[in-house]
Every structure is written in structure tokens, then in C-alpha cells.
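Hi team,

Filling in the usual template for the complex we talked about on Friday. All components are listed, including any nucleic acid strands or ligand strings, so the model treats them as one assembly.

SUBMITTER: L.P.
PURPOSE: interface mapping
COMPONENTS: two
RESIDUES: 846
SEQUENCES:
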Amino acid sequence: MGPRETGGRSRPGRRAVLGAGGLAALAAGAAVLTTADARTPGDDREAAAGGAVAFHGPHQAGILTRRQYHAHLAALDLAAPAGAPGAGAGAGTGAGRAGAAALLRTWSAAAARMTRGEPPVDGGADTGVALGAGPAALTVTFGLGPGFFDRAGLTAARPEALAPLPAFPDDELDPARGGGDLFVQVAADDPLVAVHALRTLQRLARGAASTRWVMSGFTRSAGGTHRNLMGQLDGTANPAPATDPAQRARILVTGSGSGVPGWLEGGSYVVVRRIRMLLDHWEGLPAQHREQAVGRRVADGAPLTGGAERTPADLDAARPDGVPVIAANAHIRLAAPRSNAGATMLRRGWSYYDGLRPDGTPDAGLLFVAWQADPRTGFIPVQHRLARGDALARYVVHEASALFVVPRGAAEGEYVGQALLEA
Amino acid sequence: MGPRETGGRSRPGRRAVLGAGGLAALAAGAAVLTTADARTPGDDREAAAGGAVAFHGPHQAGILTRRQYHAHLAALDLAAPAGAPGAGAGAGTGAGRAGAAALLRTWSAAAARMTRGEPPVDGGADTGVALGAGPAALTVTFGLGPGFFDRAGLTAARPEALAPLPAFPDDELDPARGGGDLFVQVAADDPLVAVHALRTLQRLARGAASTRWVMSGFTRSAGGTHRNLMGQLDGTANPAPATDPAQRARILVTGSGSGVPGWLEGGSYVVVRRIRMLLDHWEGLPAQHREQAVGRRVADGAPLTGGAERTPADLDAARPDGVPVIAANAHIRLAAPRSNAGATMLRRGWSYYDGLRPDGTPDAGLLFVAWQADPRTGFIPVQHRLARGDALARYVVHEASALFVVPRGAAEGEYVGQALLEA
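RESULT (copied from the run log):
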């Protein structure tokens, strides 16, 4: 049976596919930025592998910083204030707001300690799972979903850009694995450090918020450009935004000339998509077919028009018989700058492998994580433009989706979101 | 709600618990061996982190070799020969046997190449997922379940020791995640190398065998003694079997004086247990309670009777009021050599974290993997003896179980199981 044909459906070219794997092709130009290679410093707070990444700073860590080897993404839902289900909405104050503030204060303090390689709390409450592992480049990044503002009595403060993402063609989203009031990205070079940080934040949230979903992923520990589970080099031609202030401004919110509130200046928006890959079928394709679907060579990521990994693709090149060298539906053609001028985001996702699904196929793919200053000029238009017959679309399924606003980083002595919650 | 009390049951002290987490206490003496620490060479074939571990040798790699950072455990069921469901049982020859031989030949060749950092097959069939990552200390280890011998027409050759494990008190086993005709352990320091090797073996098995279950785990990348998700140091006092020939003979099958067939001499038996930890409850316990349940300090693994990590526990020590310093039901007391003399196995498991269960609790724990020359003098008696009120038993659930016989290693030019299949 071919891909995406279960139930009699065959739909090549009908699926939206930005996410199709943190795809090499998105690297074809400047339209979409990716973070630096696994071992390339990506931020002034960057540390050597295994070192410490500062929690405090003008923007949160885990956005521009080097992608670590292990990550957990989680969403939590705030508990309704005791005795007042739904209370707080629009109130501006109340138990919901105080509870949310207390949670973010506690979380921020614990995160700052853990990123230094210290136990998250004083006393014996820590289980010691991360003892001896060092900081392991741990970062903890917090985001807020639309429901956070309602439950915290801050509906009026919710940014316009934090609106539900539009429906994209062929999405097959599971609401239980998407959305959420609070977003946590925990990433580290050591798997125990990552699990410990996630478990600690969940434990500290008890009574204030309950976990809605967790997804876990990884990158390879070898250096070089990220490679996804389809085998594609992912992020080939994209500059590190840390080195380009103009591009950085497309990733982080700036307030120049607009009404950006202080709590958001230096913040970001993050889109999370769980994109399953239909590997049983993909792996059975001839290598030439796989390379034509992408438009690049598997081995070195060079475009099919020749050169090396970072050689620009020649989209106008044709074979003697007039057929384009890079096919009309090749991913890098549809994702090229000429199709997506102006839409910019920083993709910094992880591969996941969660064993078998009930039907025996692999539960594996990409945890797509994209950061941008505004999803309306980032993920949304790119995703719409890419929903045009991408050759890779047959081999992926978008299973979950979420959008969060990411407050600016906390200064020393401050907690993430304090400027919002104590305004 | 307390642990293990769902449905009104409260059963402290009633659960079998060897597995209770690759528990530190098993390290209390010589009764159970563990492999060397994460970065300590464990075998003459050992490589530096990221290097190559030879596939060929007198015993299979992945048993005595250093535990890598990432692992996938999988079981596959052989397909029935075409037109002859159930055929081959007892026949000694037939399509089942030829098919099994062809599969193991193909697998062995691919595994040997991948462990050298090469593509598994010639031509363009490889997806390239592991390109550029190097060997990453990849090991691939194959085992055979009871059904393998029936389906391959080799029922008469099935070793007596490959009998179903007895039922242990409080097991809650899911048959769909246990058993299987073929066992594959894939482990590497790089997560993409590990996933790529597993996917490759599954692809090469297509038509000959279908995957029954897959479980994925990890160890910390920091050096020192392994620490499990309960926070316990795991394997403190156990020597590396590579350094002690007498202990090595308890792990690998030897033929001295008995009728061990040639295909098994240098082989082993592996017990695999999926042991979920009730972390929500465990993490909420006071540190003192957690340490008393184990009998060791969390921070450094020293016994509660004092000293350092490798100081022997003083099981007779009492406080002035006569209460034993190490409690009567402390794990290290029940697992001490005096309780388990003679029963020896090599535990070389991985932690797993698979997100949330439907009830919101963590799906996390230990993939217990124990190697021994004979389960009747290894896992089985130890597990029976430990089923006596272990204080840790309340915090774990044994969810899946399997036993496989592990043929000796293949020499250059040979495949694993060849001496059995071509006898």
C-alpha cells in the first residue's frame, strides 16, 4: 500500500508541508532561518557542550542557543481557582492571576538553579536524578497559550497575534496533543538532566497546573548540519540569527514604533507541530525518487543542480529534454525564497521516535518548533504557501499543533512573565 | 492516593522487585553483576565513545561492552512459510528454516557494516539517516525466542533453559509487549545511528518477520555509576565481568563438561523486563523515606551505615534503640549476597521516558536487561528471592517480560546463528 492511501485515499501533492521534516529544502534560501549546527555557538550565552547556559537574559534561553541533544516539549493547563471555576477571566486580578504568578516565580527559580547544575530546590525534595551530570547545557523556555490569559484574568492583555492558527489543508490534528495554557521546552545534552528538569517542573506545578501533553525528541550528537529521520540535511543554507541583527528582529519581538508591551519586547512566538513521517513508505523509495522529492542529494545536501551543500540551487536549470533538473513539485522549489519572500522563522525542532503505532507503523517524525516575532508574518504564510503540491507532502502527517507567546527573558531576581503578571 | 492503591489495593511488600529499577541495592554485593560505568571500557572490543565496536567475535557485542547512551530493544515474529501456516515445526528443514537463515545472514551483514560506520547495504537503498555520524559505538545483538525454534523447524534444538519464565507475584504483564521469535538490541552513542540501525533491520526483515514490539531507552552521558529515574545509583559495587573470568562464565555460556551445542558456546540468555516506576508518588516522598527504602544515600550511593559509594553495607548495624540502620525491608538488605548467593547476572538496562499515560501519570521507568549463562540460575531465583517485601516494590510495575537465547558471536564471514541453522 502506498503512503497516505489508507482508506482508499491517495493524495500526492495535496498536503501542507512546511513541517515535512525540518526539510532540507527550507534551507535553500533566506526565507526560513534555522539555528546553527549542533555544535556551533548560536548565542552570546552559549556554552560548550555540557556547559551551563544562563537562564537570565533579555530573551529566554533555548531559542537562539545551540540545539541540545535531548528535548521535552510539554503543555500544562492552569487549574481553575478554588471555588471559582472559570473565575478570573477578564477580572484583571484574582486567584488565577496570583496562582499563575506563583507558579512562574517558582518555575523560574528552579530553572535558574538547574541550568547552573544545582538542585532545583533547597532541602531534600529533589530526587537527585540529575546529580553528577552537570548543567549539560540545560535550557528551560516558557510560553503562554491563549487560555493562560483568560485563566489568569488577563484577557485584555492577550496579544492579537496569539489567535488560533488557521486550518491548513490535510491537517489531522489531535486536540489532546495540541494547545495548552503553558508551554515548557526543556532541552539538555544529557537525557537524565532533561527528564529531571521536566519532572521537577511538573512536580512544582502540582495543584496549580496539570500536564496536558508531553513530547520528547533528540538531535544527533555528531556535528554538522542537522539530519532528520528522512535522511535529509536540515538547515543547510540558513544563517544563524545570532549573527545577523536584522534577521534576529524577525525572530524576537521588538517594540520599535509599535505598541509592544514591555513583557513581550525581546520575546517571541513559538509554533509547535508534531509531524509524523511515513517512514515505511519513504524508506522503500528508490534513492533517486527521494532526492527528486527534495531537490537535494541525500549524501551531502547539495542541490541536484550541482555543487556542494551550500551551493544555491539553480531552479531554472533544465535537462536537454527540457525537463527541469529540480522538479516542479520538489520541496526546495516550493520553499525557495522567491515563493516565500519576507516570511521568516527560526526552526529548531527535534526528531522523535516513539516505537510502534497500533497498526504497526513507526510513530516517528519531527517535533517541529519554529520561533518568530509574529506568526502572522512567519509560520502562517509560509505554511499556506507551501500547501501547493509539495512532493514530500505525501510522506508526512501533521498530528498536533500549538501556538504560544513567549515572554521576554527574566533579569536576575525576576521571573518569566513577571512584567505581565504584576503590571 | 498512594502508590499501587488504585482499585482499593494497597500492597506494600507484596511485589517482586528484582527489577525495581536496576536498583542500587543490587549493587550491594557480588550476587548480581552490572556492566562497567558508562565510560569505562568493558570488553576487549570496546571503543572510545563514538568509536567502532567490532560486530564479529566469540560472543556478540552489546553484552560485555560499554553501555551506550541510546538503545532500542525490539522483538519480531517470523512469518509463517508461504502456503504452510505453522509449517516447519519439528521438521528440521523447510521454508521456515531457510527464511530464518536468510534473515539472519542479511541482518548480520548489515549490522557488521553499520558498526563500522558504513551504509548497511550497497546501492542507494539506504536513507542516509546515519550519514556523517560515524560508528557511534553501535552494537547490534540478536536473540532467539522459543517460537523461533518452532517456526524454523528446529524445535528439537531448543535449549531447555529457554522455557517460559515463571509467573512472579504482582506481575502485570502485557503479552503484546513481551515475548517474540527474534530479539534485537540496538545501542549507540548517537540517537540517529541507533534509530537508523533499527529501521534498517526492520526494513531488511520485511516479508520474513514483522515487528512485535519496540522499546527505547537511554543512559546519562555523564560518566560515573549509572543513575536511574528514581535517582538511585545503579551498579555501585559490581565489578565489570570483563575483568573476572569466573564471573564472565556466569554471564556467557560455556560448554565445559556438558552438552552445550557449539552455536551456544559463548552465547548467553537475556531477560527483558519493562518496569514502570510510579514516579508521581516516589518523587513526593521525603528524601529520608526514599533513602530508607533503598538503604543508601541518594547523593553518593553510600550505604546508610556510612562510608562512601563502594563501602560495604553493615546489615547488622543498629541504632541505640535497637532499630536496624538499614531497615528490614530495605532493598539492599533483601538483595544482599547473603540472600542471593550464587545467582549471578549482568544487568545492562536503560531508562525510558515515554511521556504520559492515558491517566496522566508518567510512562517512565527501566528497561531491565539482564544477561546470564542460564536463567534458571540467574534471573529466576533472584527474582523469586526478591519477592519478599522489598520496600521499593510499591513503586514499580512489571509491565512486560521476555526471555531469549543469544547465540555465540559470529566469526568474520559468518552470520549469527549460522551454526544452529546450518547444523
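MY TAKE: Chain A has one domain: 15-157+172-421. Residues 118 and 135 of chain A are 8 Å apart (CA to CA).

Thanks, L.
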